[in-house]
Each structure stands twice: as structure tokens, then as C-alpha cells.
Amino acid sequence: MARSVSTRRKLITTVFAWAIGIAIFFPILWTILTSFKTEAAAIADPPVWFNFHWTLDNYATVQERSNYFRHFMNSVIISGGSTLLGLIIAVPAAWSMAFVPAKRTKDVLMWMLSTKMLPPVGVLVPIYLLFRDLGLLDTRIGLVIVLTLINLPIIVWMLYTYFKEIPGEILEAARMDGASLRSEIIHVLTPMAIPGMASTVLLNIILAWNEAFWTLNLTAAKAAPLTAFIASYSSPEGLFYAKLSAASTMAIAPILIMGWFSQKQLVRGLTFGAVK
Amino acid sequence: MNTTFRALMGACALAALATGATSETITVATVNNGDMIRMQGLMDDFYAKHPDIEVEWVTLEENVLRQRVTQDVATKGGQFDVMTIGTYEVPIWGERGWLVSLNDLPESYDVDDLLPAIRDGLTVDGELYAAPFYGESSMVMYRTDLMEKAGLEMPDAPTWAFIKEAAAAMTDKDNEVYGICLRGKAGWGENMAFLSAMANSYGAKWFDMDWKPQFDSEAWANTLNDYLELMNNYGPPGASGNGFNENLALFQTGKCGMWIDATVAASFVTNPNDSQVADSVGFAQAPDNGLGPRGNWLWAWNLGIPAGTQKVDAAKAFVEWATSKDYTELVASKEGWANVPPGTRQSLYENPEYQSVPFAKMTLESILSADPKNPTVDEVPYVGVQFVAIPEFQGIGTAVGQQFSAALAGQMSAEQALDNAQKLTEREMMKAGYIK
């Protein structure tokens, strides 16, 4: 029997949800607002909200000083490439763990996740030296490889969770109908796991897009993505908050827009199987 | 005829290939500050003089840059051909053979024109390992209107006692005006830059001649107690989180009576576009206690060439151009004398046009009064005014800075902070083999 929810309770819940939403979005809103201020207005005390002289000068300066498009393309290639490569490896891995589990499958999954527990700086020097010797420093392919490896445990875990929700009997039926392993994964499993896979892809793209440790440490001029673009506007000696905010807004805009349009899939995927 | 034509075509093709082969791209790693960004906008002059060299810029925040270039130079990663490095790194890297010597710069470069204090800090065993792009010291910036209102007159070279008196007189907490703003944020280049320089003027030092830490000395106790007294009574709230930028924002919005910090700030606080107090700022040398050294530091951002680069000649051509007298004149002609990178060449300060810049005289006097080889009252085994030029200093300096920042935040007493600083420095110096 459905519980009746009082109007008062609904109101409280709504206000609470909006308050949390605004609190989470506030830093982004403030960054966007600051990007349209002068440097003097950016540090004004008390802070000015909307009543300031709106200017596009900061965007013009950023555009003039930096090659935004090159950084943007590097971000697209690195995040897209690492997600694609990650999926190619993770789908068969998650399939085997979900449908043909071995005695140690859980241990393997935990071991994979444990690699995320090591602070990245702990392996910076060996990876840097490997990259130097393999000629991968400041290359997009190098970053695609390293970001794939970093995000692989998360992709495998997420896909494993989604695949576990799919009844094994459906795959068995496909097999009885003569489907090969390849057909079973591509034509039967994948369509059913689309919501989960979509959210995995989206989350992985967001993680790769925002990754700022390896992308700053392994790049210089050629392969530097938007994280390096933002870092170039941070200054400990000089108040350039408005320009930094403009650079940040330009860097996060593509991923924000992508997230906005795909939020339905993202939420559907993340809550997939949450309520049984 | 046919053979001649073919030979000509072949020669043209070879010439084209040779032209392509000699065109080189160098990667320059730099910090994001006004002078460096200005240089990126003036590159047409360099390209006109060196059409065979292209420059790619990697601009990074100071701490990220330091980590990136250190990693690259130590592993000979070869990602950068020219690096922007500070006076802390140059002697350490030069000694290890990580940098290319610049002793063979042409006579027209006039290396003798570099300010001795800056040049000495970049020279190891007679080899110049980096060329200074801009130099800075620290000085007192103060509000002339508030000083007048307080009935005081700032001397050119004040004492710490006067600073305390002026801070008390200028403080008006009800109107959010604080007598003095100083760095409080923990870090070897943050609060410890200020406190190490202040300690020099109190006769304190980091180490004695046997590398034994000296935080248990009376001079350090006096330094820290006076700093805390100043900040607790006359400083802004939450000062333990304030670095250069936070204090700059406070000063520009009229909340500080005095601010002791980098000379480079002078151009910001006097810029009417950004500063609400631009027309009422005065300058004075950093304070002293009558013991000799003043409480000012010495720093320069320099261009160095890592030993791992394959493009030494192109890199040297760039370094020579960027740190030359001609570059100074180029900036002056395009952006005005106030925007010329300061603090590197004597000839700049002899230029009558530059002498009319309000903060030029005080900047030069501050730079000249700092001596990195004899930073404090007693003889010390290290080089550096606000740092100790040993590789271990970054870690130790930041750890000590955390203790002093905690004392400023009221989390521990000055005695406790000094005791912790002494113990942790002893431990690290023992581990590094300086003391047994």
C-alpha cells in the first residue's frame, strides 16, 4: 500500500533537496559569475553578486593568450580514447566475472580496486621514467594508456555490477539458439546493459576529463589537455581570479553541457538495480 | 641544359630540406606572472631576430612548475629546453651539473651589468648557470593617508619598534582596518620566506656553522613572539591562511595599514584599475633592529637551460634575448617603464626615465641591501636570505612553517612551535647526514 506523504513533508524534502543542489552548484555558479567581472570586482568585499559591470574581456584575454582549441581537442581525444580502450578491455573482463565466476573472482575484483588506494604520486617516478624511455612523454597516446589503466578498475566494477543484474538464463537461451560468445556479448548482453554501460562511459569520460595529476605531470606543450590550460592561469603572485575563472568556465563548459544532456542516462544507469 | 636544370632543382630541394632541418622549436616552461605573460606577447621581436627558432610555452602555477621542472631536469626527461627557476634551485642544480653554463654569452650581453647580489646567487664555482629575468626583494608598503591620520611619519628605513607603534596607531578594527598584514600561510616560500628574513634582522639563523638547528635560540624566540604579537593585536582575522594574494586583496581593498611583502606587489597596489588605494601608497625598506641585516629577502626568477636538452644553441639565443638590455627597452617602448622587469640590471636603475617610476628607488635599495652569502648577523654555512640552499630545505621549511602557522592560529604557543621546529629540523638534518 502506498504511503501518503503530507504536503508539509513534501515541502521540507523539496526545500532540502534544492538547498543541497544549490550548495553543490554554487562554486560553479560563482566561477561563472566571476569570469564576467573585472579583476577589481572579483575581489570586492563585500562580494558583488549580479550588480557589476559585466565584461567579456577575460574571455578575450584567455582566447588571445592560449590555444584553447588545441587543449580542448587533447581533452576530447584523451578522455574519449581512454574510455573506448577501457570498454574494450572491461566488457569481456566483467562478462567473465559476472557469468563464469571462478573461486577467486571476488578477490580479483578487490585486488583490482585496491590499486585505486595507492596515491598516484607513489608511482610517479617509475611511470615518468618508463614514459621517457618509451618516448611517450607529452603524447596523447601515452595519456590514453595511463588514464585507461587508472580508470579500468572502476569500469570493470561498474560493468560487473550491471551484468550481475542480468539473468544468466537469457544468455543460456541465446547459447542454446546457437549464438557464439562474440554474438552473445554483442547482440544479447550489450543491448540489455545499455543503461549501465552508458553511465559507465559518461562517468569515465568525466573522470578522464577532470584528471589533473597525470595530465599535468606527463605533458608539456603538445598533449596538454584542458586541466593544464586551467593550471596556466593560476598565479601565487598576482590576483588574476577573473581570468582564472574564465579559463575554468571554458574548460568545464563542454563536460557540463554533456552532463546536462545525458543526465537521464546517467541517473538511470547509476540507479540501475538499486531497488529490487 | 637538362643536366644543369636537374642539378639546380636538386640544389633547391637540398636547400629547402636544410632550411627545414635548421628550424627548431624550443619549449619554455614558465610561471604565470605579469612579466612572463608580457614576454609572450612580445615574441614577434624574437622571431624577427631569430626566424629559425620557434618557441612553445608551457605556463604553470609556481608550485606545479617547480615540481615539473625538477622532475624533468633530474631524470633528463628532455621535455623543456628553457626553464624558469628560482634562486633556490640554481645553486643546487648547478652544483649537480643539471644546468648548462652560460659563461659563453657574448660580450654584448654585458654580464657585468647584472646586479651583483642577483648574479652571485646564480653563480657556482665561477660558472653562471642561469640568467635573471626579474629580481625582487621585500619592502614595507603602507597607506600614506592612514599614516598621516595616525600622526606618524614613515622613515625610509624603519625599525621593528616603529612598525609596531605604527601598526597600533593605524588599527581600527571597528572599520575593518588592520595595522599590519603579513604572510601566515604555511610553506617554505610562504610564511617562512617572511619569517626567515625577519629572523635575520633579529640575529637569528637556521643553522650554526656545524649545521645544528638554532630554533632554541633567544633570537628565534624574540622573532616569533614579536611576529605573533603584531599579528594577534593588529593583524586581520584568519591570518594563518593568508599568503601573497590574500594580503594583496586586503591591501587593495583598503583593509591594511602596512604590508611587508615582495617588491613586485608595488606595481599592483599602485595600479588604479585594480587598487582602491592606488593614490595613497608609500614605500619603505623592510624593518631592522639595528643589528645590520634588514628583514627583507632576495629572489629572482631566472632562465636556465637543462643539461638534457638537444637544442642548447637555440635555447641560449632565447635566454640571451629575454634577459638582455634590448628586451628592457622593448618592454618600455611598448608598455611603459613601470612594466619593465625589475631588479636584474644596474643600467636600468641608472636610466633617468626608470628613476621616475615611484617604487624603482626603494626596490633597488631593498635588493642591494640583501646579501645571500651573509644573510644574518653571525657567519652561517649556507647561502640564501629567506631559504637555505640545500635540497632538504623545501621539506624542512614547510614543516617548520606549519608549526609557526599553527601558533598564529592559536593552536599552540610560540615556545611549543619553536620546540617542535627544533626537533623536526634536527631529525631531518640527522637523516640527511649533516649532523650526527
TrEMBL record, chain A:
Q: Which residues form the ABC transmembrane type-1 domain?
A: 72-262
Membrane topology reported for the UniProt record: Multi-pass membrane protein
State the compartments where it is located.
Cell membrane
The alphabetical list of record keywords is:
Cell membrane, Membrane, Transmembrane, Transmembrane helix, Transport
Would the keyword Lipid metabolism turn up in this protein's UniProt record? no
Any one annotated GO CC term: plasma membrane
Which InterPro entries does this UniProt record tie to the protein?
BP-dep_ABC_trans_perm (IPR050901), MetI-like (IPR000515), MetI-like_sf (IPR035906)
Its main subcellular localisation, reduced to a broad class, is membrane
The portions of this protein that span the membrane are 12-33, 76-96, 108-129, 141-163, 184-209, 240-261
Q: Name one GO biological process term.
A: transmembrane transport
Entry's family note: Belongs to the binding-protein-dependent transport system permease family.
- Protein name (record): Sugar ABC transporter permease
Organism encoding this protein: Celeribacter ethanolicus
- Lineage summary: Bacteria, Pseudomonadati, Pseudomonadota, Alphaproteobacteria, Rhodobacterales
